[in-house]
Write a structure and sequence with these properties.
By secondary structure, this protein is α/β, with parallel strands linked by helices. Helices cover 31% and strands 26% of the residues. It has a six-stranded mixed sheet with strand order 2-3-1-6-9-8, sandwiched between helices. Strands 11-10-14-18-17 form a five-stranded mixed sheet, sandwiched between helices. Helix 4 packs parallel to helix 6, helix 13 runs parallel beside helix 15 and helix 14 runs antiparallel to helix 15.
Length: 722
């Protein structure tokens, strides 16, 4: 690397310097004329939409893409981060569709009670009669297809080349699996499970987590998040969109909430322009939510740009006197699982997580605070959730975390008590969380942790903690009112299903926006350095400036391959060049190589170590390099490592050389160079080791001497007539 720098330095003395040209076209920019503009980071995303089993004659690509997001812009202090989105539409071949169909049939179960149907009348009744639980879920017949198998197959057998930065979006049509009257339907099982128990999730929310609604099946028409793909089959059955449109406030009644693809297609004349327009609008509305809320989410904030994060969680066991021991509840969450998930979500910072399980009877202040906002109603404990939440925030939270910290510091409290309900805004909830306060409080009745046998663990709270921590990092929900399809995904930020881990959509957003802010910081530092450049910068300064730009280009290239860890590591090179740029303007004194040598001290034609002691009083030593010149023509460099006192590098053995010369070169962070005298370790006259190896020389010498003796003896014998 240093040899290349020297070449560049030499060239710079011969050609005009590549400084940023000012308006007048001169070769350099005086500091007084430098004007810093807002930094803009631009990322170009691509979403490749693949239509599977659709007739191209009824598709209108322009209508299909109309209204999909084409740009997201986020302001970060004095910078703007711009995400441009380009769409490409293609059609899967008949062969590809056949292969996918076979895969689905081989990984599905078809039966009379494989799914769940929703009784909308019962749901509407319970909405207006909250104290009268209803049976709203019933079994239904159909084909349950393994969503994991489908997603893995699509990932391993992509219909199109996946983009470097972006997603492949598969829009499927397998209405052929359904009967005309919907007696049989198909859907996808995406293995909703509880993080702490590994139990398949067959319960849904507090209001229906009871004996009236057992064995609920989660039926997905769309899914994604284990890979960089999303799959949506509008012909698949589901009950969640029907439930959401009734339970959550809404301002509209989109067709895709209640109608499968075949219903829409059968109601239209697809040979007419109007029928085609309605059909394509239906598909566009269905696709919009997962694209707008997952792939290029508008609702998320850029990741919290912090250097570390701390999470403190207290789990209060409130029935110890009644026989529920603290140890019996330790399975509901643990620091190891939360750490693993959060390091997966944001691996660039250290996570300090503690989870403590406590008997509330041993903490009178907590016990007293709880009962300040709770009352007994018969055997049921009713909690004023909002009042207790803010009381904890004001009175307790400052004792456990630094509420003024600029880093992420979260405080979580879990109350576990038999026969307990928390209410807020007139409804019952499990927990509350505030990303602004960095706090979550969960009130979960003991019974809901276990199966009906009150022994088998069913549902812990790790997914809830991960959800709230996601909020603190800048993630919002994967859905919004009137936009519910985005909840069909793998990850903690939705309300629909639980999953043991984070989604690719979450990770891409958090890590990508964190790296964006790293680049903003680097470009701000570059601008600051440029503003300090003299009218005639040193050649070394110009080399360092170009080094920063080249390193940022590498960062961008790695970023656009979604290699987040590689991109993070690439910033090390950016930081190094920025440091060189800074010191090159203030330090012109080279480092001093006070001493150097080899181990062993005598050259023995084998692997050896070169060491050097180097000092620099201002910028500090950047790197030290051992140079080896073989046969006066081939030069090899060996970077040295620093052990705290000296620099050293190991030089290997070489074959077939006639001369061996070494020297040491050192650079400080100001890009000033120092070099030792060359040291000739060996200089021979032949063409290889056999000419100078001591053993070989001895043997050859002995043979030569013997030959001479023999010749002299023969001459002597011939003269004597012997």
């Amino acid at each position: 690397m240093r040899a290349a720098l020297l070449v560049i330095l030499c060239i710079l003395f011969l050609i005009p310097t590549p400084a940023i040209p000012p308006a007048d076209g001169s070769a350099t920019m005086p500091a007084s004329t430098f004007a810093q503009e807002e930094i803009e980071i631009v990322r170009n995303w691509t979403i490749r939409i693949v239509l599977v089993n659709y007739d191209p004659n009824v598709m209108d690509e322009a209508a299909l893409l109309e209204g999909l997001p084409t740009q997201r812009t986020h302001d970060v202090e004095d910078a703007a981060i711009v995400y441009n989105v380009e769409y490409e539409v293609s059609y899967a071949s008949e062969t590809y569709t056949d292969s996918l169909r076979s895969l689905m049939l081989a990984n599905s179960v078809n039966g009379s009670a494989t799914g769940t149907s929703l009784n909308e009348t019962a749901l509407e009744y319970q909405i207006t009669h909250g104290d009268e639980p209803q049976t709203i879920f019933y079994p239904r017949a159909g084909r349950e297809i393994d969503g994991y198998a489908v997603e893995d197959w699509l990932n391993e057998n992509p219909a199109v080349e996946p983009p470097g930065l972006g997603y492949v979006f598969y829009l499927l049509n397998f209405s052929e699996f359904d009967t005309p009257g919907h007696e049989l339907e198909h859907w996808y099982d995406y293995h909703a499970m509880d993080s702490d128990t590994g139990e398949t999730q067959d319960w849904f929310r507090l209001e229906w987590d009871n004996d009236l609604n057992e064995d609920v099946d989660f039926m997905y028409p769309g899914f994604g998040g284990r890979h960089n793909i999303y799959v949506l089959d509008p012909s698949a059955d589901q009950w969640y969109l029907r439930w959401a449109r009734l339970w959550w406030p809404n301002a509209g009644d989109s067709t895709h909430w209640t109608n499968d693809l075949e219903d829409v297609a059968n109601s239209l004349d697809l040979s007419s322009p109007l029928g085609m327009a309605i059909f394509n609008d239906y598909l566009q509305e269905y696709m919009y939510d997962p694209i707008a809320y997952l792939c290029v989410p508008f609702q998320h904030y850029p990741a919290s740009y912090v250097t570390q994060a701390k999470v403190r969680v207290l789990v209060f066991c409130m029935d110890v006197q009644d026989g529920v021991s603290v140890d019996s509840l330790r399975w509901v969450t643990n620091a190891e699982m939360q750490t693993a998930h959060l390091e997966e979500l944001l691996p660039f910072i250290p996570w300090d997580i503690e989870v403590n399980f406590l008997d509330i009877d041993n903490y009178p202040s907590w016990d007293s605070l709880f009962w300040d906002y709770a009352v007994l109603s018969g055997n049921m404990t009713l909690v004023d959730g909002l009042g207790l939440f803010y009381a904890i925030s004001d009175q307790m939270r400052p004792q456990y975390i630094n509420v003024d910290s600029t880093d992420v510091e979260l405080f979580g409290v879990i109350f576990i008590k038999k026969q307990m309900l928390m209410h807020v805004y007139g409804k019952n909830y499990t927990g509350l969380g505030s990303p602004d306060l960095g706090q979550t409080v969960i009130w979960k009745s003991w019974e809901r942790y276990y199966r009906s046998d009150e022994v088998t663990p069913k549902s812990g709270i790790s997914h809830i903690q991960l959800h709230e921590t996601g909020h603190a990092l800048g993630l919002m929900h994967t859905w919004g009112y009137d936009h519910y399809v985005g909840d069909f995904s793998y990850g903690p930020m939705g309300y629909y299903g639980m999953h043991n881990g984070t989604a690719t959509f979450d990770r891409n957003w958090v890590q990508g926006t964190y790296l964006d802010q790293m680049e903003v910081e680097a470009r701000e530092e570059l601008d600051s350095c440029r503003s300090q450049m003299p009218a005639s910068p040193r050649p070394e300064t110009l080399v360092a400036e170009q080094g920063v730009l080249n390193a940022l280009d590498v960062v961008g290239a790695v970023y656009h391959q979604m290699d987040w860890q590689g991109c993070y590591e690439a910033f090390d090179d950016v930081d190094d060049w920025l440091k060189r740029l800074t010191f090159s303007m203030h330090d012109t004194v080279p480092p001093v190589i006070t001493d150097w040598g080899t181990i062993p001290t005598e050259f023995e034609f084998d692997t050896f170590t070169v060491w050097a002691q180097v000092t620099d009083n201002l910028a500090g030593v950047d790197n030290v390099i051992v140079h080896v010149l073989l046969n006066n023509s081939v030069e090899v460099e060996y970077p040295c490592e620093f052990d705290g006192s000296e620099w050293s590098a190991t030089v290997p053995d070489f074959d077939n050389y006639t001369s061996f010369v070494i020297w040491v070169e050192a650079y400080d962070w100001g890009m000033n160079r120092a070099s030792t005298q060359q040291r000739v370790l060996y200089e021979g006259s032949g063409g290889g080791l056999f000419l100078w190896d001591p053993v070989v020389v001895a043997v050859v010498g002995a043979i030569f001497t013997f030959a001479i003796v023999v010749v002299i003896w023969k001459l002597y014998a011939r003269r004597k007539g012997v």
